[in-house]
Write a structure and sequence with these properties.
Layout: E1 3-4, H1 10-28, H2 39-42, E2 47-51, E3 59-64, E4 73-81, H3 90-104, E5 109-115, H4 119-127, E6 131-137, E7 142-149
Parallel strand pairs: 4-5
Antiparallel strand pairs: 1-2, 2-3, 3-4, 5-7, 6-7
């Protein structure tokens, strides 16, 4: 089960994100959004959850409880596993954790945004009962918004 990270974990988190999102650069042709922000400021309003040793995480979830209207959904800002952990079920465990966290916060759904070029990841979310709610064209990329309703799900 993931443990809550603190600002003291910033260096391993930055190293983890670089490793986890590196392959997305080639697929997207642009810098992945999770690699283009100042993480120190995110700790003020986002929740960071680490799976595995703090000094060398195997998975990371970053949740933004302020993104959606209160009580509606919990926004997944980032969910990733280290490349050497892929295909072992850790992503499924992290997603189950996110859903449990959303319920604990009284949320009815979880939401996320991903790049349209990440088709394998989109398919993974669709297999986990997410639905595409809309497409959005940004200056340098097209993203899709996805949602998984949790109401009446156990």
């Amino acid at each position: 089960m993931p443990i809550r990270a603190t600002i003291a974990d910033i260096e391993p988190i930055l190293a983890f994100q670089e490793q986890a999102y590196n392959e997305n650069r080639a697929i997207k042709g642009v810098e992945p959004l999770p690699l283009s922000v100042d993480y120190k400021g995110l700790f003020d309003f986002m929740e960071f959850w680490l799976e595995g040793p703090n000094e060398k995480p195997e998975g990371l979830v970053i949740l933004d409880p302020t993104h959606e209207p209160p009580g509606d959904a919990l926004f997944i800002w980032s969910i990733a596993t280290s490349p050497d952990q892929r295909g072992r079920g850790l992503g499924n465990q992290l997603l189950a954790f996110v859903e449990a966290r959303a319920r604990a916060l009284g949320r009815q759904a979880v939401t996320l945004v991903t790049n349209t070029r990440l088709t394998e990841r989109i398919d993974w979310y669709l297999r986990h009962d997410f639905v595409i709610t809309r497409h959005e064209t940004l200056v340098d990329r097209t993203v899709i918004h996805m949602r998984k309703n949790l109401v009446n799900r156990i």
